[in-house]
Amino acid sequence: xxxxxxxxxxxxxxxxxxxxxxxxxxxxxxxxxxxxxxxxxxxxxxxxxxxxxxxxxxxxxxxxxxxxxxxxxxxxxxxxxxxxxxxxxxxxxxxxxxxxxxxxxxxxxxxxxxxxxxxxxxxxxxxxxxxxxxxxxxxxxxxxxxxxxxxxxxxxxxxxxxxxxxxxxxxxxxxxxxxxxxxxxxxxxxxxxxxxxxxxxxxxxxxxxxxxxxxxxxxxxxxxxxxxxxxxxxxxxxxxxxxxxxxxxxxxxxxxxxxxxxxxxxxxxxxxxxxxxxxxxxxxxxxxxxxxxxxxxxxxxxxxxxxxxxxxxxxxxxxxxxxxxxxxxxxxxxxxxxxxxxxxxxxxxxxxxxxxxxxxxxxxxxxxxxxxxxxxxxxxxxxxxxxxxxxxxxxxxxxxxxxxxxxxxxxxxxxxxxxxxxxxxxxxxxxxxxxxxxxxxxxxxxxxxxxxxxxxxxxxxxxxxxxxxxxxxxxxxxxxxxxxxxxxxxxxxxxxxxxxxxxxxxxxxxxxxxxxxxxxxxxxxxxxxxxxxxxxxxxxxxxxxxxxxxxxxxxxxxxxxxxxxxxxxxxxxxxxxxxxxxxxxxxxxxxxxxxxxxxxxxxx
Length: 604
Description:
This protein is an alpha/beta fold. The protein contains 22 helices and 12 strands. Residues 383-600 form the Asl1-like glycosyl hydrolase catalytic domain.
């Protein structure tokens, strides 16, 4: 996306400078089209909503007190306009296919024009199965993942608190994963049992059918593999490089102006031909189709297979034939920009563009953290989606923007009104007691934990079980008795927390660990959070593995955890590699990972 106007341009536009106003609109129009187009799923209303946004922005520009806040203010207005358009639609009425504008259908263009392959095509199709509120959030999150928006701008635009926004994003990504499984299950040849389930299916994506199909895939042995080997959405984005706009199209962006006619009402116009004025919004909607998938306003994107997401691809835009009924703005790019696959690509026709840095490699990956110099930088560098510090709030170890903090009620002494209130302010998920089966940790009996659990329920948060030190799969063990008691008392436990440390440093450690995770899941049938794991020999020598052994274990363990759909989160113990944790931690300071730290950074 072209560089957006600076603060000086915003200030001049606010003062009424017509040239600055033109620059401001031209610079931010692609961003507005991207957000609206993704949220409205290519509906024909996209152009109208974009125009409403820009008119509202210009009418109220004089009231903007801080020019530096213009982008956040613009995004917030855009999201409000999208919501107003949603509220204006009949809630139960399906979208009439005739209302769709083929030239602005972002998902269709991304699939047919850009020839997305494999899991990128699957992900693009899966967006049709998301709830409306999640499509809106997906539009913002994709822009964040590509570096176009910040988490602060998403928070302001959505009206959510930072912790709530983090939780909503995680839930949206979980729904996207479910939708991808649905898309896979619907590919022929279908399972005979699924075919029976789909007897009344009209082919239209919706929440009810998403849930029915997903439930079948979880219960059907033949369909279960659709949940395996999913590349994280962030990884798909990371492999998508961008190419510059064709020269002719770039001038169309630059020619777009907002003129003020008599009466002070802004109207849309384009310098040049009358046809150009009519075509430009459609052209923008079409060429920005890629932003629905890549998360940035680019004319086309080139992809590399997910196995090498961090290596920038030499960008080549494939030419494709489009149906006669659909405009094909991408095909009009000059040959020097989008060469035919049959012709050699000259160095001058391509440009290597480094993909935006993606802060999070996996929505599952996290770390346990305690205070050390550089904790915030290390949290950002390691690519953690979440972290915790065994406390009900993040006052001790504040994290960077975009990394979710998950609070914990460590033990009986923390079950107070004040502590629970602090924990609730941090988010929607709450970790239960820490190793209650050990005297040197929270040291709680099963009965005491069950008596205290209703207090945690009163927060209304999603509750993760107490994390036992060992024996989570043992009949009659601490966790087994707690889960039996919780069921008898009608208490809520939404997921199971586990700790695991292996004293066998050989290659067998990976399967030992994953086998334990599988056994616990099979026993309770609930999602799993591994809140501590690593290699340590507490009773023998050597106490810690070598760097090579840690790296091998991290690679194997995280690969296995990513493939298990029931594993929601995992966290290495721990992030600091200082003092007494130097032999098993990941970072010496904010930017100095150990060998294990580098392996964990690449995981997911």
